[in-house]
Write a structure and sequence with these properties.
64 residues, mainly alpha
Length: 64
Amino acid sequence: MTDDEIFTRLLYHGRVQMGMSEREFWLMSIGQFLDLRACHFQWLGLEKAARVVTIDDVVPSSIV
């Protein structure tokens, strides 16, 4: 797959699936867009999160 084909698919996901304007898509960093795309796929149930983090994982028990 060429770079042009990849960006065409990414633009499609941003514009059609996620409702972004073309300007929003092109001004967003690629990393941020790919994170949003992963979240969108999780919301649709097409992908699972890499790992599940709970509040107990974030806040040490010594604080409570």
